[in-house]
Amino acid sequence: MSDAAATLRDIQTFVELAKTRRARALDADAKARMEALDEALREVIEGARPAPKRIANPTAVASAPSSGNAVAPAKINVKASQVLEQALELSPTDKKKLGEVKLESLPQSSYTPPRIPAFMADYYNDDLVPASVAGTETPTSVVSAGGDSMDLAVEVKILLGLERPAPRPEVVRARPARSSVETQAARPSTPSQPKAPVAPRGIPVIVHMLAGGTQRGRVEGFEPKSGHLELLGKDPSAAARVPLRTVLAVFFGARPGGGTTEATGTGLAVQLVNDKTLSGLSPDYDEGGDALTLVPEPRRGNIDHIWIPAWAVKAIELT
After folding, report:
1. Distance CA 126, CA 178 (A)
2. At residue 216, what are phi and psi to the nearest 5 degrees?
3. What's the rounded Cα separation, in Å, for the pair 183 and 232?
């Protein structure tokens, strides 16, 4: 393989590694390979800029310690008589030493930066060069190698420095919305109408469970034959269905409209399966029945009557 072909292959490899580095996917081995190619290609390609020097063992430079006592600068009083009242002029001998030199006649200095920045050389080539201009003006167009003008997009012209980017549009911020307090203060105050109290739906109940614990809520209707209890919570639209087979007893509170269940019937002392005893009068007691209603006697708290299923009863004593 010739040296030119090897150099071309190294350039292609360097370009691929540069793309990978731009995508931030360059690993340590590829980075070392890219640095080696960079040094090798700088020696082969004519006109390539030398690599920057690196310090093998950089050492930190200690900063000078600050003085503990700050010293104020001395003040110098200058008298008006010491100030020059007239500008300095060259003597006739010195004026003869000066000559008029035209800018075009001066040789190009290696210390004078070119009109085109160094980084712009990456965008120009033999087929695309800046248009030649006189003096120190900046080129505003590009031409081909044959001198024909080239039509470029606005973005490319801005990139090459041929056009200035459009000014940023002025952003007019919207006025902040007025707070609710300001809005209410601006409106005339109207006397608020008192709201009528909303009566809660259903009858309050406390459901004692066979497994222990209680559930509280309200019921609008109770049908033991349905096998469940629709228990309303704080949200009336969401009712909890409680199976009656899991219930020990249901304590019903007073009705919203007032009135209580009349305490009539058979006097009973009902012992539940949890060894708790409830006493009162039952208007529907039937020996061997599925359930019974017990009106506590004496009444305590806000309890109106109690529903007790047969499976929750351990023993019944007539009183």
Report:
1. 63
2. -115, 150
3. 39
Q: Is the peptide bond before 92 cis (omega within 30 degrees of 0)?
A: no
Q: Enumerate residues 6+ apart whose C-beta is below 8 A from 279.
A: 267, 268, 269, 270, 296, 297, 319
Distance CA(284)–CA(64), nearest Å, equals 104
Q: DSSP assignment of 296-309, as one string?
A: ESS--TTEEEEEEE
**Cα–Cα distances in angstroms (integers) from residue 6 to residues 1, 64, 242, in the given order:** 7, 53, 86
What is the sign, positive or negative, of the torsion defined by CA atoms of 63, 65, 70, 72? negative
Helix (H, G, I), strand (E, B) or coil at 229: strand
- In angstroms, how far is the first alpha carbon of the chain from the final one? 119
pLDDT confidence tier of residue 208, bands split at 50, 70 and 90: very high
Instruction: From residue 285, give the alpha-carbon distance in Å to each of 208, 264, 297, 303, 315.
Output: 21, 11, 15, 19, 14
**Rounded CA gap, 66 and 203, in Å?**
84
**For residues 250-275, average pLDDT:** 87
Alpha carbon distance 152, 37 (integer Å): 34
Reference 160, options 131, 188, 135, 193; nearest CA is 131
Mean pLDDT of 98-115: 71
Greater pLDDT, 115 or 274: 274
Burial class (CB in 10 A: 0-12, 13-18, 19+), 278: middle
CA–CA distance, 293 with 249 (Å, rounded to integer) = 10
pLDDT(171) > 70: no
Tokens of 235: 């949200």
Q: Which helix (H) or strand (E) holds 35?
A: helix 28-44
Q: What is the pLDDT of residues 114-161, one digit of tens each?
A: 555 555 556 666 667 777 666 566 667 777 767 777 777 777 777 777
